[in-house]
Each structure stands twice: as structure tokens, then as C-alpha cells.
Design a protein that fits this description.
This protein is α/β, with parallel strands linked by helices. It has eleven helices and seven strands. The chain has a single domain, classed as Rossmann fold, CATH 3.40.50.450.
């Protein structure tokens, strides 16, 4: 008969939650009192990866996750436009290759989900450039799309930290049609610009008819809620090429994309 294992005298101490290493103690780390620490970790994890990839600046693309490449004609049109714009911006903006300092500029950054976000990440992939997905887990959505660079695809719990990463490196902002979430992101960036709390950056609303129908900005002016000059914080565009041109006209500094950029995109698209 095998000898019965003797319970060590310090078994209670070894099994006590207090004895767990703090870094491995999920109950400790997920307690409300550690919210500040978790907030900092969400910042540090993404920041470290972005630095390793030499991402100095981004072009942020917002828009609805409900827009698909199959469905209503307007949705297909917006999806294709977001994809085409991201390819143009990636080819001509400086995201394809690192500069002499090892940095990339104007890397496409999205929320990393479906719809417009997927289209923009896909367009960057068409051009052979990296792109970023700042994803957040929501009840209705969403998993990361298949087109953002895996090493630059992050999951956030806190909306505030996700928005901070969007704003930190943004050199330009393009807003495609969307709903509450897109408007939330738009107005946050407009407020940072208006109040001087963020860097001044060109903001383009894609599809003038959609946005004029969705938001009557002149109404804010008429009732004294914003200054007339605040309407100059953004501009409208209705094609991918016009969007890129207006970003440049409004101060975006483009990198030197290789001459073969467009050929690389065509080769990738034909392979798919």
C-alpha cells in the first residue's frame, strides 16, 4: 500500500492568495483598485510595439463597422473608396518604408474592426504597407479584421486609452460615413483641435452629401454655439483622390513613396 503523502506544514501559506506573485495574481490585477495600473499597461503595450515598428505618425480613418463590400450601393461605394484612399495614402505618404532615421510616417490607423476600418486596413495591405488596428471588445462587435498588421493589432478595454492612441500620432483624420461611434470620434478630434489641446491636423469628411445631411454645422454657428471660423477646421471630399489632395493642401506632409508603389498595389490586388 503506497504511503500517504504528508501535507506540508506550510500548505495553507502556499495556497493563500496573498502568496501569489502580484504580476500573476488575476484577482489582484483585475480589482477596481488597480484600474490605474491597467490603464497604464494598455498605454505601454501599444506604445512599445509602435516604437519598434518606427511608427512616427498616422493617418486615422474612422467610419462605420456596418459598411460592407457587398450590400447597398452606397455602402459598397464607401467601402471601396476607403480601401482606395488607404492605398493611395500608404503609397505616397511614407508608410511603405522607413526613412534614414528608421521611422515611418502616415501609417493608416483604424479601429481594427469591420466595415470602413477593414477597408482602410485592406487598402494599406494592397499597397504593401503596414497598418494599425486599435480594436476594442464590444457586446455587438467586434473581432479584428484580417488586414491590419498582426503585430500592430491591439485590443483595448478602455475607450479613453484607445482614443488617446488615435490622437497621439495622428497627422491627419479622414471620417467616412458612420453613426454614433464615428460621430463621437469626430467630435472628440474637432474639440481637441478647436481648443488647442491637440495638434492642428487636417480633417476631411468623406461624402459631403452624407455629412451635410447628418450634421448641420451651420446650425451651431447660427445659434452661437461655435465660431464661424470653426467651420474651417474640416473640409469635405467625395473621391479618394480628392481626399488625398485636400489633405496635402491643408498641410499634411507626405513622405517619398517608391516609384513602384502603384505597381506593387496592382500586383497584390491581382493576386487576390
Amino acid at each position: 500500500m503506497p504511503a500517504r503523502k504528508k501535507t506540508p506544514a506550510n500548505a495553507r501559506q502556499l495556497s493563500s492568495p496573498a502568496f501569489r506573485l502580484a504580476a500573476l495574481d488575476q484577482d489582484f490585477l483585475l480589482d477596481d483598485a488597480r484600474r490605474g495600473l491597467r490603464f497604464q499597461l494598455e498605454y505601454e503595450k501599444a506604445e512599445e510595439a509602435l516604437r519598434k515598428w518606427g511608427v512616427r505618425s498616422t493617418i486615422v480613418v474612422f467610419g462605420s463597422a456596418r459598411i460592407k463590400d457587398r450590400g447597398p450601393a452606397s455602402h459598397v461605394r464607401w467601402y471601396r473608396a476607403a480601401r482606395e484612399f488607404a492605398a493611395i495614402a500608404s503609397e505616397q505618404g511614407g508608410a511603405l518604408d522607413r526613412d534614414k532615421d528608421g521611422q515611418r510616417d502616415n501609417v493608416i490607423a483604424t479601429g481594427g474592426g469591420g466595415g470602413v476600418m477593414e477597408a482602410a486596413n485592406r487598402g494599406a495591405a494592397d499597397a504593401g504597407a503596414p497598418s494599425i488596428g486599435f480594436n476594442i471588445r464590444l457586446p455587438m462587435e467586434q473581432e479584428p479584421n484580417a488586414w491590419s498588421t498582426p503585430e500592430l493589432t491591439f485590443q483595448f478595454h478602455y475607450f479613453a486609452m484607445r482614443k488617446m492612441h488615435f490622437a497621439m500620432r495622428a497627422r491627419a483624420l479622414v471620417i467616412f460615413p458612420g453613426g454614433f461611434g464615428t460621430c463621437d470620434e469626430l467630435f472628440e478630434m474637432l474639440t481637441l483641435d478647436q481648443t488647442g489641446k491637440g495638434n492642428r491636423l487636417p480633417i476631411i469628411l468623406y461624402d459631403e452629401d452624407y455629412w451635410r445631411g447628418a450634421i448641420n454645422f451651420q446650425h451651431f454657428v447660427d445659434h452661437g454655439m461655435i465660431a464661424k471660423e470653426d467651420l474651417s477646421l474640416f473640409a469635405y471630399a467625395s473621391s479618394p483622390e480628392e481626399t488625398w489632395r485636400k489633405l496635402l493642401d491643408r498641410g499634411l506632409k507626405a513622405g517619398n513613396g517608391p516609384p513602384g508603389g502603384s505597381r506593387r498595389r496592382k500586383a497584390k490586388q491581382s493576386a487576390r
